[in-house]
Amino acid sequence: MSVRELYPGNKRHSLKGLYLKLALHRIAAARNVYIYANYIVSLDGRISLPMGTDAMQRVPDSLANARDWRLYQELAAQSEVLITSARYFRQLAQGCAQDVLPLGDPARFTDLQEWRAAQGLRAQPDVLILSNSLNIPPDALPCDRRVLVACGRDASEAAAARLRGEGVALYRCPQGKVDGGFVRQLLITHGYRSAYMIAGPEVHRTLLEAGVLDECFLTLRHMLLGGRSYATCLEGPLAQPVAMELVSLYLDDDIDPAQQFARFRLRKHG
Ligand SMILES: NC(=O)c1ccc[n+]([C@@H]2O[C@H](COP(=O)([O-])OP(=O)(O)OC[C@H]3O[C@@H](n4cnc5c(N)ncnc54)[C@H](OP(=O)(O)O)[C@@H]3O)[C@@H](O)[C@H]2O)c1
Predict the structure, then answer these.
(1) Domain harbouring 262, CATH code
(2) Over the stretch 206-223, which tens digit does the pLDDT of each residue have?
(3) Domain span at 184
(4) Confidence class of residue 42 from pLDDT cuts 50, 70 and 90?
(5) Domains: count for the chain
């Protein structure tokens, strides 16, 4: 279970622990939060494909794999809060979500749960859900962690009240959609120091546009998926291109087809 470092060095490393040793929960400056994202993507840029209907997409089984999933969980282990979309909870309610929220399954990744305890982190990261529709099935909400929801100015007050009744802490952004700067400030106000964004292209754009994302981890699987309807890791306009610097790159060729684990740091605007 090892991977070959391609940049900056050329050593071999154990896959297990590869990302855990980054200590992302300790990086944030005082009164700040470190926000990172992660995607697995095919060579033709797909992060998800339709599951039968165009509206319902998920990461194809051919792209997903246990080795990448391990690193996904290691990134989650270092987070105090997950940032995700309402779509995940709608899929969960319909029984077609990819998996439980990390690190939710008590029988798996027990070493990561122990690691969190040793680091003084709560058993599970909290979750911040971005939604304008507030169409979030209450039964799909997790009971093992604190749930925050951020919505835009015009979101339904009746739906907001229903969610508050379920114990959700709801925050309304003064803009029409939730703005990335609002997300960051909300996280800082709650004292979070590390946040892991696990949603898709729109939440990604929200954070990038505001210049609040610090890092992006990208698993590039050496396969082409095709398809006419698909999601990529970013959708919608950006006021300016976002430059990224490669921090590390590993080749994982103990899997067929192989994949690369890249870590990018974002250059901040201005
Ligand atoms: N391959 C990978 O690594 C990877 C990773 C993540 C996701 N995915 C896939 O990508 C696909 C799309 O994921 P996703 O639905 O989470 O993507 P998304 O495009 O980030 O989120 C869409 C939903 O999030 C809410 N939202 C996003 N930005 C918002 C904002 N600024 N203000 C208010 N609400 C906002 C909206 O919810 P409302 O509709 O409730 O208003 C919107 O419908 C899924 O199929 C997923 O499986 C793949």
Answers:
(1) 3.40.430.10
(2) 999 999 999 999 999 999
(3) 2-266
(4) very high
(5) 1
SS3 string, the chain, reads CEEEEEECCCCEEECCCCCHHHCHHHCCCCCCCEEEEEEEEECCCCCEEECCCCCCEECCCCCCCHHHHHHHHHHHHCCCEEEEEHHHHHHHHCCCCCCCCCCCCCCCCHHHHHHHHHHCCCCCCEEEEECCCCCCCHHHCCCCCCEEEEECCCCCHHHHHHHHHCCCEEEECCCCCCCHHHHHHHHHHCCCCEEEECCCHHHHHHHHHCCCCCEEEEEEECCCCCCCCCECCCCCCCCCCCCEEEEEEEEECCCCCCEEEEEEEECCCC
- pLDDT band at residue 54 under the 50/70/90 scheme: low
Q: Ligand 1 test: best mutation among 85, 92, 135, 230, most atoms within 8 Å of CB?
A: 85
The model's pTM is 0.97
Mutate to test the pocket of ligand 1, among 134, 202, 212, 233 (most ligand atoms within 8 A of CB): 202
How would you classify the pairing of strands 147-151 and 49-50?
A: unpaired
For ligand 1, the distance from its centroid to the CA atom of residue 101, given in whole angstroms, is 15
Model confidence at 134, pLDDT cuts 50, 70, 90, reads very high
Q: What are the pocket residues of ligand 1 if the criterion is a CB atom closer than 6 Å to any ligand atom?
A: 39-40, 47-48, 57-59, 85-88, 98, 130-133, 135, 152, 177-178, 198-203, 206, 231
Mean pLDDT of the chain: 95
